[in-house]
Specification:
Mean pLDDT: 90
Structural class: alpha/beta
Largest sheet: 5 strands, mixed
Distance between the termini: 57 Å
Strand order of the largest sheet: 2-1-3-10-4
Radius of gyration: 23 Å
Number of strands: 10
Strand content: 15-25%
Low-confidence stretches: 1-28
Order of helices and strands: HEHHEHEHEEEHEHEHEHEHHHHHH
Shape: globular
Helix content: 40-55%
Number of helices: 15
Length: 348
């Protein structure tokens, strides 16, 4: 081997070592995921309150974090929760207040990244069935459509009824889902009022078929209904799962934070390209109109505001006698530990 060849190989080896020395620390610093295959159960995935989950899936943000995520879609959040309680899924994409309900029953679940800083649920009455509606008291004896019993749409309806002096037993709640089934039930006159999510509610609103009587699609509307900020859609899981899989939970949070950041600047065409065609319910313009109504409700950074859980507890305790406010440890129902790290990464 001549000197030129020897020098060339020596230089190549030195360069390779130099590159390795730069890359290796980064690899060593990357925490090993305890689980790479994760099952997420969601209620009504196509609803705008869970749009961040869809974006993270469609744009490959979960894969970028080394995760293989399988998302199972259920008719409502209460049924998605049952999947995790039953052991067929790891994580719920659902409403924060379920963690309070679960704790009241002795089950420890914790929310770790927020998708919605407002519920984005609205309630309205049928202009066909109730043309002379004047006050919430008029709903006594009526049929109210909700996504499913025990869901957030049910919770919002209960709260609105209780503030008007009505109890859940004063009306009939009917599960209609959150998509085409809800539209069909409403238009067929099978229900007199409905508490539901977008894009369904905006579609009925723009067609002049519904009169909105309570609206949590904006921060102001949420404050009017709940008396303060109300954390909504989030990822939550059994506390034991979070404690056993902190790196995996952090990876999930990074993916969701990436999605939230993307949504802050996404334009109409970006949204249309990112979501499945079935989400549009056959009307792109109305879908985008609905998105504009709920855009403010999307969390900018995944952080749960400290006053939010207190608002949720107060609301639940106001109509559910099984919820004893003084027995609930709110600090155990959520953590911002993972979202805080994600916020730092993305400077959200």
């Amino acid at each position: 081997m001549n000197n030129i060849e020897l020098n060339r190989r020596t230089f190549a080896s030195a360069a390779a070592f130099s590159v390795a020395s730069l890359v290796a620390p980064a690899l060593w610093a990357q925490p090993r995921l305890e689980k790479t295959r994760i099952s997420i159960a969601v209620g009504s995935k196509a609803a705008f309150c869970y749009l961040p989950l869809t974006i993270a899936e469609q744009l490959g943000y979960f894969k970028a974090e080394g995760l293989e995520v399988e998302i199972s879609d259920f008719a409502a959040g209460s049924r998605a929760l049952q999947a995790v309680v039953g052991g067929s899924a790891d994580v719920v994409s659902g409403a924060y207040e379920h963690t309070i309900n679960l704790q009241s029953k002795g089950q420890r679940f914790q929310a770790f990244v927020l998708q919605g800083r407002a519920p984005a649920i609205s309630m309205g009455v049928s202009l066909k069935n109730m043309p002379n509606y004047r006050t919430v008291a008029d709903l006594r004896g009526k049929k109210i459509g909700i996504s499913a019993p025990g869901s957030s749409t049910n919770m919002v309806a209960n709260l609105i009824l209780s503030r008007a002096g009505l109890k859940a037993g004063d009306v009939s709640f009917i599960g209609v889902g959150t998509a085409a089934g809800a539209l069909s039930a409403f238009r067929a006159g099978q229900i007199d009022a409905m508490s539901n999510v977008d894009p369904v509610m905006t579609m009925l609103e723009q067609k002049g078929e519904i009169r909105i009587i309570a609206d949590t699609r904006t921060l102001k509307g949420t404050s009017d209904v709940f008396g303060g900020p109300m954390p909504a859609g989030c990822l939550y899981a059994p506390l034991e799962f979070i404690q056993k899989n902190p790196n995996t939970v952090q990876a999930l949070t990074y993916a969701m934070a990436h999605s939230l950041k993307w949504l802050q600047t996404a334009g109409p065409s970006d949204i249309i390209k990112a979501v499945p065609e079935s989400y549009l319910l056959g009307d792109r313009a109305l879908y985008l109109a609905a998105f504009n109504k709920v855009r403010e409700a999307i969390s900018p950074d995944g952080m749960i505001p400290d006053e939010g859980p207190r608002t949720a507890l107060k609301a639940l305790a106001s109509f559910d006698q099984a919820i004893k406010a003084d027995k609930i440890e709110l600090s155990k129902t959520y953590t911002n530990e993972f979202a805080r790290m994600a916020k730092e990464r993305y400077k959200a």
